[in-house]
Amino acid sequence: MSSKFKTYYSPARTLCLSDGIIAIAITLAILNINLPNLPKIETVGAILDYVYAWDISVFSYLISFYIIAYCWIAHHALFQNIKQLDINTLWINFLYLLMLTFIPYSLKIVAGNLNSVVAEVLFSLNLGLVGLSLWYLWNQCIRKKFLNQATTTSDEMMSNRLMTVTLPAVSVVAVGAAFIVPGYSFYVWLAHPVANFLLNRYSTPRKIVDYITEHDGAAPTEQAKILPTNQSRPPSKATPQSIE
Length: 244
What we know:
The protein contains eight helices and no strands. With 244 residues, the chain is an all-alpha fold. The N and C termini lie far apart (71 Å).
């Protein structure tokens, strides 16, 4: 017989576990950079050959490091405002961590198969799935009302949703570029920090219609303007009644 009561979990242990896994993933990524086997570097031409042979491997590592750091910031922004978690949200968080821990593996494939369309597509799809799973985690917490309204405004939720949506969007473009111009799809990811900067700087703050504002009233920034429900209004003047 199933229990009527739902079990909720504290986000503190989930955050500690997530931080540990992210730290391991960002450390393992550097181990996938292969040093090219070149003879003595004595001329400028030899240095250029060394840089060219190392270019894609290092550049893909820098992209991976940036994406992992970017996702950690968005994940931290979510968990510093979260009140509780249910079992479904925990599994979504593990899905996000699964996608993120695949980054060192896809990076190793790229380092061992330079200019391979399959390697480039796998790498970009991996980064896109990380962003998509993080977006799903954010939406789950908003839909279930797990965010603390006292510390989270609707504008902040909109900003963090945009942070996660940009990753799958750039991933789609990078996958297309891998088929059109193989070897250059990694450079598409340079557009992500630019797009994110422009969105955060020039997008007009606006409210999002979600379950929190829909069912709980005004956004937290406007709650100070609303009188508490237990506060009595000043008595109105009684109109004199005629005595017959």
